[in-house]
From TrEMBL:
<feature type="binding site">
    <location>
        <position position="145"/>
    </location>
    <ligand>
        <name>NAD(+)</name>
    </ligand>
</feature>
<keyword id="KW-0521">NADP</keyword>
<feature type="binding site">
    <location>
        <position position="143"/>
    </location>
    <ligand>
        <name>NAD(+)</name>
    </ligand>
</feature>
<keyword id="KW-0520">NAD</keyword>
<comment type="function">
    <text>Involved in the regulation of the intracellular balance of NAD and NADP, and is a key enzyme in the biosynthesis of NADP. Catalyzes specifically the phosphorylation on 2'-hydroxyl of the adenosine moiety of NAD to yield NADP.</text>
</comment>
<feature type="binding site">
    <location>
        <position position="153"/>
    </location>
    <ligand>
        <name>NAD(+)</name>
    </ligand>
</feature>
<dbReference type="Pfam" id="PF20143">
    <property type="entry name" value="NAD_kinase_C"/>
</dbReference>
<dbReference type="InterPro" id="IPR017437">
    <property type="entry name" value="ATP-NAD_kinase_PpnK-typ_C"/>
</dbReference>
<keyword id="KW-0418">Kinase</keyword>
<protein>
    <recommendedName>
        <fullName>NAD kinase</fullName>
        <ecNumber>2.7.1.23</ecNumber>
    </recommendedName>
</protein>
<keyword id="KW-0808">Transferase</keyword>
<keyword id="KW-0067">ATP-binding</keyword>
<keyword id="KW-0547">Nucleotide-binding</keyword>
<dbReference type="GO" id="GO:0006741">
    <property type="term" value="P:NADP+ biosynthetic process"/>
</dbReference>
<feature type="binding site">
    <location>
        <begin position="117"/>
        <end position="118"/>
    </location>
    <ligand>
        <name>NAD(+)</name>
    </ligand>
</feature>
<dbReference type="InterPro" id="IPR002504">
    <property type="entry name" value="NADK"/>
</dbReference>
<feature type="binding site">
    <location>
        <begin position="45"/>
        <end position="46"/>
    </location>
    <ligand>
        <name>NAD(+)</name>
    </ligand>
</feature>
Length: 262
C-alpha cells in the first residue's frame, strides 16, 4: 500500500483542507510521517520549503505535490478549490516525476543543510566584505549587504528581487547574485548575476562583518568573520509528482504577470 504525509500551513482554510485530504486518502493509502511515498503540501511556497526540509532524509524515496492556499504558489499545481481534483488525480493517475536541483551548504567544512531555493550570506546593519572563490580560485572581493546563491527553481524567489535571471528549473545549475553591492571608483565587483554549471563550487568568506548570517531557505545561522561558507550543487534532488504538468510560461504568468491582455 502506498503511503502519504501532509505538511499544512497553519491557517483555518489549509487545516480544513488537510483534514479532508487525510480523511479521503486514509481509505486508499496509509499515513506515514517518516518515510512517505507522497508528501502533499497545503499552503504556499514557504510550506513546500518546510515540506522539503522536514522530509530531507527520504528525498530518494519521496515525491511532493502542492495545493495552493498561500500567497505565492510557484511550486503548486492545484488551487484551493481544486482539492477534490487533486485527490482524484492522486488516486487514479501515475504522475510524471520532475526533479529539481538542490544545493549542499557547508560551514567550515561541515555540512549544514540542503537548499531548495537559495542560500545567502548577508549583513543588513553594516557593509560587509566578502571574499568570493569559484572552484577554489579567488574571484572577487565583494562589498555590500551580501551574496545569494540560488537553484534554478529558486531563481524566481529572492534572486529575482535582486535582479537575477529566471533560469529554467530543469537545468543543473546555480546562480550567484549580489545583494546591494557598493560600486564606485575604488570598489568594483561583477555587478551581474552569474550562472554556473554543476562543476563549480562557490566559497564565501566574510572578511569584515559584525552581524553576518547564513540563510538557507527559511533557516538562519549566525556566522563570524573568517568563517568559510561553501556551496555546491547536491547529488540529491527533490522530486515533484506532476499529475498535470504546467508549462513554465503559464507558471510565470500566473505568479508574476497575471494580466488580461490575452
Amino acid at each position: 500500500m502506498k503511503t502519504f504525509a501532509l505538511v499544512s500551513r497553519q491557517d483555518a482554510t489549509s487545516e480544513k483542507l488537510a483534514k479532508h485530504i487525510r480523511t479521503v486518502l486514509n481509505e486508499h493509502m496509509q499515513y506515514d510521517a517518516n518515510r512517505p511515498d507522497l508528501v502533499i503540501s497545503i499552503g504556499g511556497d514557504g510550506t513546500m520549503l518546510e515540506a522539503c526540509h522536514r522530509h530531507a532524509a527520504s528525498l530518494d524515496h519521496t515525491s511532493f505535490v502542492g495545493l495552493h492556499t498561500g500567497t505565492l504558489g510557484f511550486y503548486t499545481n492545484y488551487a484551493a478549490d481544486e482539492c477534490d481534483l487533486l485527490l482524484e488525480d492522486i488516486l487514479t493517475k501515475t504522475p510524471e516525476q520532475t526533479e529539481r536541483s538542490l544545493l549542499d551548504v557547508y560551514l567550515n567544512e561541515r555540512w549544514v543543510d540542503i537548499a531548495l531555493n537559495e542560500m545567502r550570506v548577508e549583513e543588513n546593519r553594516f557593509t560587509m566584505v566578502l571574499d568570493v572563490y569559484l572552484k577554489d580560485y579567488f574571484f572577487e572581493r565583494f562589498r555590500g549587504n551580501g551574496i545569494c546563491v540560488c537553484t534554478p527553481a529558486g531563481s524566481t524567489g529572492y534572486n529575482r528581487s535582486l535582479g537575477g535571471s529566471i533560469v529554467c528549473a530543469g537545468l543543473k545549475s546555480m546562480q550567484l547574485s549580489e545583494v546591494a553591492g557598493i560600486h564606485h571608483n575604488q570598489f568594483r565587483s561583477l555587478q551581474s548575476s552569474l550562472v554556473l554549471d554543476d562543476s563549480f563550487t562557490v566559497t564565501l568568506i566574510p572578511r569584515a562583518s559584525r552581524h553576518a548570517i547564513l540563510g538557507i531557505d527559511r533557516d538562519v545561522y549566525e556566522i563570524s568573520q573568517g568563517d568559510t561558507v561553501k556551496v555546491s550543487i547536491s547529488n540529491r534532488s527533490m522530486k515533484f509528482a506532476n499529475y498535470r504538468p504546467i508549462p513554465l510560461s503559464q507558471r510565470l504568468r500566473r505568479s508574476f504577470i497575471n494580466d488580461d491582455q490575452w
